[in-house]
Structures are given as C-alpha cells and as structure tokens.
Amino acid sequence: MPKSAVYSGIESFSGDRELTEVTFAEGVTSIGDNAFYDCSSLTAITIPVGVTMISEYAFRGCSSLTAITIPDGVMTIGEFAFWQCSSLTAITIPDGVNTTGEGAFCGCSSLTAITIPDSVTTISEGAFASCSALTAITIPDGVTTIERYAFYECSSLTAITIPDGVTYIDECTFWECSSLTAITIPDSVTMIDNWAFNGCSSLTAITIPDPVTTICNGAFYGCSSLTKLSLSPVVSIGEDCFLDCTALIAAAADKNMPTVSDLLHYRWHRKPAVMERVTALLCLKGTWDHVEDQPSGSDSLKRKRTDEDEGEEEDEGGLEEDASSSSSSSDEAPLRLTETREKIPKVLWRVILEFL
Fold first, then answer.
1. Are 4 and 20 in contact (CB under 8 A)?
2. Of the four, 78, 174, 211, 318, which is 20 to 30 A from 123 by CA?
3. Residue ranges under compositional bias (Acidic residues) (predicted)?
4. How far apart are CA 193 and CA 146, in angstroms?
5. From CA 217, how far away is CA 268, in angstroms rounded?
6. How many other C-beta atoms lie within 10 A of the C-beta of residue 322?
7. What sign for the dihedral angle of Cα 14, 19, 21, 22?
C-alpha cells in the first residue's frame, strides 16, 4: 500500500522502506542529513524551488528512485547525497553548484546521462565512482580540479576530454574504466598520479603532452589494448607504470626494438616471477654487444696473422696450412650485431617478450 509523507525540513524518514511519495511544506530551504536514507520504495521526488542545500546522505540507498528534479537554486550537494541510488537513470545538476560533495553520485549504477553546469570548478573525490552505466560525460571548461576516484569503475564510459585548466590527474581517477577507448589530456597537465588509468583495457592510444614531467606508479597498469604511446623521453616514469600492457609490448616487438633492455626496464614491464628470464635476456643482449666489438672478416684474419708473426717462424708447409686455417676462420667470422638481429624473426621477438 502506498505511503506518503510531508517533509518540513526537520523530519528524518531514514530507514522507512514503505515510503513511496513525499511532498514538501512551504518554506523548506534545505534537506537535512540522512533525511531519506534507505527509503528503498521511494520512486520519484521533486525538490521545490527555494531549496538551496541537499545535505550529506540525504537520499542514500533510495534504490527504487528513478527520477529526481533539482531546482536551479540549489548551490550545495553534500557528501554521498545520492549514494547507491541504483535505479536513477538521469540527473541534471543545476547552475549555481560549484562543487559536489565526495561520492555524491557514487554507486548510481543505472545512471546513463548527467549534465554538469559551467559553474562547477571541482569534481570531488569519488563523485561518479561505480556509475557503471554512464557512457559519456562532458566536463565543463571551468573545471580545474578532478579529484581521486572521480570516475572509478565507470566501466561503460567510452571517451572523455579533460579540460585545459586541469593540471593534475589524481590517483585512481579512471581506475577500471574498461570501455574507455579515447582520452584527451591537455597541455596544462604536468603530472599523472598512481593508478590513474589502471585497468583501462580498451584504451588503444594515448598522447602524453610534453609538459607532463611525472607519471607515477601503475598509471597505465593493465591497459592491455594500448598499442600506441607518445610521451617525452625526459618524463619520470614510476614502477609498474606499463605493467601488463601486453599489446604495447607486442607492438614494440613488431618493430624489432634496437635493444632488448629498452623493453625489459623495470619501469615499463616488471614482475618478480620473471626476473630470471630478464637476466637471461640481458645476458643475451650482452653477448650481442660483445659480438659487435669483435673484428670480423679480413680484420679477424689480420689479427691472427699478426699474432703468428710474433711467434716462431714455421716452415713453408706449415705456413700454407695456417693460411688455409685463417681463410676458414675468415669465412666463419661471427656476425656483427645488426646482422645477428636481422637473423632473428619478428615472431621470435614476440615469443621472447610474451614470457615477460
């Protein structure tokens, strides 16, 4: 049986799971903390003109709420105000709001569209975390700060553009945005923090602008579809930054990278379990470097003959035998490094790198 109630601004209906409809008394200017916490049968609500503040946890756990109208006068949306409103499909944040509280829309797993006004300058920590149905969002040009976990586990988000005013991509901001295929990072960004794009497994290409000086630990960990990466050679890269970027490693293999160590560096691809393989391959590279330092062809023959002249003089028959031996040695001179590398097929490079 439907149950209705009137809210005057001081009541709390927290935990009333039978409440289905709410009306507001005249003069209400704010919705208090936990006012409708866990009202799991509430399906729709219209907040009246005159309300300026929605306090923390106001509608948390209203799991049947599918629609809500927020008037233009609202200036503050508190922490976790709509946390786990899992049936909410769309929402418009009114003009005048300049920031949303931490986790304001966290866990709104049916939310497919949201409008952020130009007045917003900060997207707070975890604001849209676990909004797993959100496919697209436009961040206004006025936003200068995107805090950590802002789009954490937005697994349906396919593309996003970070506005020019943002200077720092906080930790875990786009963690496990597994459908994200494209992202634009502006020249204003100077640092990408820990695990910022961890698990963005559909991301195929990214350009890191030259002003970025630091990419922290695990920033692109598990971006398994990434095949194209552009970044400044002077950027500082943290540990495990590109760990499990398997397509990126394979793409490098296709190009026959000039040195094995470029790909084995711990900052690019490191796992304790394969350090012995890394050591073995680096030893292999050392062998190639040694080969390049050795003389080949006629240079090898000249060195051999010089050594012979310093020894005892041999009879003519012996000299002829040595000359024949030297000629054979010339034919079997070790390949130089570039020749050796050309002998290694691309598929073998791929096999070697797949072990890492």
1. yes
2. 211
3. 308-323
4. 12
5. 10
6. 14
7. negative
Cα angle, residue 218 at apex, residues 164 and 245 outer, rounded to 5° = 95
Burial class of residue 317, CB neighbours in 10 A (0-12, 13-18, 19+): exposed
Give the position of tokens 């630091």. 214
Dihedral sign for Cα atoms in the order 70, 72, 74, 80:
positive
Task: List the alpha helices (DSSP H) in 294-344.
Answer: 298-309, 316-331, 337-343
Alpha-carbon radius of gyration of the chain: 32
- What is the residue whose two structure tokens read 């697209």? 136
Residue indicated by tokens 């709420």: 65
Rounded CA-CA distance 52/59 in Å is 16
pTM: 0.72
Q: Which two tokens stand for residue 258?
A: 């000039």
| 22 SS3 class | strand
Give 94: exposed, middle or buried? Use CB within 10 Å, 0-12, 13-18, 19+.
middle
Residue with tokens 């929605």: 54
